[in-house]
Design goal:
Layout lengths: L1 E8 L7 H9 L4 E4 L6 H11 L9 H15 L2 E4 L6 H14 L6 E6 L11 E2 L10 E6 L4 H8 L4 E3 L5 H13 L6 H14 L27 E6 L4 E5 L9 H9 L8 E2 L4 E3 L4 E4 L4 E5 L2 E3 L4 E21 L3 H18 L6 E7 L16 E10 L2 H12 L1 H4 L5 E19 L6 E6 L1
Parallel strand pairs: 1-2, 2-3, 3-7, 4-7
Antiparallel strand pairs: 1-8, 4-19, 5-18, 6-15, 8-9, 9-13, 10-11, 11-14, 12-13, 15-17, 15-18, 16-17
Helix pairs in contact: 1-3, 3-4, 5-6, 6-7, 9-10
């Protein structure tokens, strides 16, 4: 027995058309959308505070309208963390979308329980002390696969979650389909490896892999998203649809397996301590790669909690300089902004003054050859919105206050959400299901 799982998104603003292609041509049992990054849920909490009906992924409706008709026709079930800070609200909206499309009787489950803001004082430090309660915007525990599998067992056509570990979104359908036990560590470990490979969508099919002249990937504008054919022992064949761009190879799979991986023998998830060290990839040709090996051990006693904190305001200004001496003029411009902020009595919490293309990433670097143009950027984290706005104003003032030849100013101000982590005893966190029917 085997099931087919497709990856419909690797982040909240990912492309939608590859997921439509999967829904229409993939012959999938499950289509999974992974749309929740570290800071995304904190921003979603802020959105829900502004509108109690909101707080779920802003592209939820657009994605569902695009894929639901084909998924309904082909019997494909959808799993996603697009519920973000409001899984119940997401389920209600999904039901409305389904009814609007004439799809009556769809069962939609929301997984609730990851929000642990009311227990922030109980968190154990994980690299950094938990912040004062008054600074906390969000606190969400990384849940596992259990409630997803339960919802599918109970007939859900769509499962929407908040914070769930990324591989768990894919592991839930496997546990549902194959009936793996809660302590079947080797199968859970292999299933987690499959989920880890699929979770970033186009990264597996060559997107993040591509490096022209070194690692060439064809037709990236039409990049196809990955599919895994998973067997009941946890082994799998990874691939993509025919006539789509990208590539699936041992190299693309190996890079994605190592992505964000610390200890390959002990990859900690809520479901299992996965062992990726014995995984073997075999090239089957035609953009198909077999995965075998891997295993796992008991799951950790504690769950990771991602805590979003109010961390001030970011004020930013950018200005371009071109022609002879552009680098020197850009350096002078940034030094003027830095001095102006000091003269005005403003003390940034953090500050960066970069020449984009020279030292914005490689700090302290110098251009090998003199560029013909450069973009100067000042970015300062300030305590108040008003102070943050002053950063952009000082950059704009360079138009007439020197140095010469500046143009194309852009400014922005936004609140900063910082992220710290903690640990909580898993026995203190429970998952429940909320249901809607279209």
């Amino acid at each position: 027995m085997a099931i087919r799982i497709g990856s419909g998104a690797g982040f909240s603003e990912d492309r939608i058309d590859p997921a439509v292609d999967l829904a229409e041509r993939g012959q999938l049992d499950f289509l999974v959308f992974e749309c929740l990054a570290e800071r995304t849920i904190a921003l979603a909490v802020a959105a829900r505070q502004a509108d109690q009906a909101g707080g779920y992924d802003p592209l939820l409706e657009e994605r569902l309208r695009a894929v639901l008709p084909a998924c309904y026709l082909n019997g494909t079930r959808i799993v996603s963390n697009m519920g973000a800070a409001n899984p119940q609200g997401a389920a209600r909206r999904a039901a409305e979308v389904a009814r609007d499309l004439g799809l009556v009787g769809l069962k939609i489950a929301a997984v609730v329980g990851d929000d642990v803001r009311d227990r922030i004082d109980e968190l154990e430090p994980f690299g950094q002390e938990p912040p004062p309660t008054e600074d906390v915007v969000s606190a969400n525990a990384y849940l596992g696969h259990e409630a997803i599998a339960q919802a599918l067992d109970e007939g859900a056509h769509i499962v929407l979650t908040g914070r769930v570990a990324d591989p768990s979104l894919f592991l839930g359908p496997m546990v549902h389909a194959f009936g793996w036990g809660a302590d079947d560590w080797d199968r859970l470990g292999r299933g987690t490896a499959v989920g880890h490979l699929l979770e970033c969508a186009g990264q597996l099919t060559g997107g993040y892999f591509a490096d022209p002249g070194f690692k060439d990937v064809a037709d990236l504008a039409r990049l196809g998203f990955p599919i895994a054919e998973v067997r009941d022992d946890g082994s799998a064949v990874l691939g993509k649809l025919e006539n789509t761009g990208g590539r699936v190879s041992v190299a693309t799979c190996t890079e994605q397996l190592l992505y964000e991986l610390h200890d390959p023998q002990a990859y900690l998830t809520p479901d299992v301590t996965a062992d990726f060290s014995t995984i073997v990839f075999t090239d089957l040709g035609d953009d198909r790669v077999a995965l075998s090996g891997g295993g796992g051990g008991p799951s950790p006693r504690k769950l990771k909690v991602s805590v979003g904190v109010d961390d001030g305001w970011l004020g930013e200004g950018q200005i371009s300089y071109a022609g002879p001496g552009c680098v020197e003029r850009a350096h002078l411009a940034l030094s003027i902004v830095d001095e102006r902020l000091a003269l005005c009595g403003l003390e940034p919490l953090d500050a960066r003054f970069d020449l984009i293309g020279i030292d914005a990433v490689a700090r302290g670097a110098a251009a090998v050859t003199a560029p013909s143009e450069v973009r100067a950027r000042a970015a300062c984290r300030m305590s108040t919105e008003a102070d943050a706005r002053r950063v952009g104003r000082e950059v704009a003032a360079l138009y007439t206050n020197g140095p010469s030849g500046g143009g194309g100013v852009s400014t922005s101000v936004r609140p900063v959400i910082g992220i710290v982590s903690g640990l909580i005893d898993r026995r203190e966190v429970s998952q429940t299901l909320y249901w809607e029917v279209s």
